[in-house]
Design a protein that fits this description.
Layout (H helix, E strand, L loop, with lengths): L8 E5 L2 H6 L8 E4 L12 H7 L3 E3 L3 H10 L4 E6 L5 H5 L5 E6 L11 E3 L18 H11 L5 E4 L6 H8 L3 E6 L2 H18 L6
Parallel strand pairs: 1-8, 2-3, 2-7, 4-6, 7-8
Antiparallel strand pairs: 3-5, 4-5
């Protein structure tokens, strides 16, 4: 049987700002990323991010989203409803959702402004990643803001969820991560996803 499409992956351990400033303008098809929460204002990087690709979707967290919107109003705002089963998430509506900012029109209709995906914590990230996102959420975002064969860039790669979703959907991926601990997790997860892509269909 034929193999699934192979993908190209480039991972960089270090500061994403320096890496981005070495990239050519418009060199990637989409930037889909989850910037750090409660760790400072990273919205100052918006001009550098938009220089490499105007097609940008990010999940900046509720407080930080005001900084990104103040710098430039997005094309549209979506909501990720995390279906939290915690007492706080069940009792307080403001805890059970997070904003998604899209700085470019999707290539195909999203279908709903509210995207519901249950929050999951993978064993490899337990006690390590503060704010993990469900793979299904980033699969949705990549599927609607890019095409097969496109290159996705994530300047805040974290544990590699965007990269896993990208290669599973037949996209190329470039990721930056400043934390060596997260980088190792991301590398392992993305390599595992690539290995599965090379298995014969039906196996």
């Amino acid at each position: 049987m034929p193999n699934l499409p192979s993908t190209k992956v480039e991972l960089y351990l270090g500061d994403c700002l320096g890496y981005m400033r070495g990239m050519e303008a418009g060199s990637v098809d989409a930037v889909i990323t989850d910037p750090p929460y409660l760790d400072g204002d990273f919205s100052y990087m918006l001009p550098d991010i938009e220089r490499v690709s105007r097609r940008l979707v990010l999940t900046p967290g509720k407080l930080e989203s005001f900084n990104w919107i103040a710098r430039e109003k997005p094309f549209w705002e979506y909501c990720w409803r995390m279906n939290s089963k915690s007492l706080g998430g069940a009792a307080c509506l403001h805890i059970g959702w997070e904003p998604i900012l899209a700085y470019h029109r999707p290539l195909r209709p999203v279908g709903n402004d509210v995207l519901s995906f249950t929050q999951k914590t993978y064993k490899s990230m337990k006690g390590i990643h503060k704010w993990p996102k469900p793979l299904e959420l980033f699969t949705k975002l990549i599927a609607h803001w890019s095409n097969e064969g496109d290159t996705i860039f994530d300047p805040f790669m974290g544990s590699g969820t965007t990269g896993v979703a990208a290669v599973q959907l037949g996209r190329n991926f470039i990721g930056c991560e400043i934390s060596e601990e997260y980088f190792k997790i991301a590398k392992k997860r993305i390599e595992a996803a690539q290995s599965q892509m090379l298995l014969p269909i039906g196996e």
